[in-house]
Automatic annotation (TrEMBL):
GO molecular function, one term: structural constituent of nuclear pore
Gene Ontology CC: nuclear pore
InterPro entries: Nucleoporin_Nup160, TPR_NUP160_M
Protein name (database record): NUP160 middle TPR domain-containing protein
Biological source species: Desmophyllum pertusum
Domain of life: Eukaryota
Domain NUP160 middle TPR positions: 4-116
Length: 117
């Protein structure tokens, strides 16, 4: 199993997160955004606080919620992402997408907290 997950780790939670990341990518290939979101949340629940996959998982949750038009959930995923670079990238995508959709009123109503660092 460690060969499939491309990891030398023997830590079970770490291996489970890597397995969920693999499953998440399969759901992305089959255009199943609801399942991507579910699997990413499960992986986050399993992850240790210092797991390096956490920013990627939050970015995936953001991306797929935004694609589905779940703007509030996308915003919440953006804010939850611990990586400031990822937050900025997601913020840019949120702003562009909502402007393109003509949803600027919703955009200006969000409290842009935790985005200054």
């Amino acid at each position: 199993m460690m060969k499939v997950l491309q990891s030398d780790s023997t830590d079970v939670p770490t291996l489970l997160v890597l397995l969920y990341v693999k499953v998440l990518k399969l759901f992305e290939q089959f255009d199943a955004p609801d399942y991507v979101i579910r699997v990413a949340h499960i992986a986050l629940d399993m992850a240790s606080p210092d797991d390096p996959n956490i920013p990627d998982l939050w970015s995936n949750i953001f991306k797929h919620h935004l694609e589905l038009g779940h703007n509030d959930a996308a915003y919440n995923a953006l804010i939850a992402n611990p990586n400031p670079v990822r937050r900025r990238v997601c913020l840019h995508k949120l702003m562009v997408t909502l402007c393109e959709r003509g949803q600027t009123q919703q955009l200006i109503e969000y409290p842009f907290v935790k985005l200054t660092r």
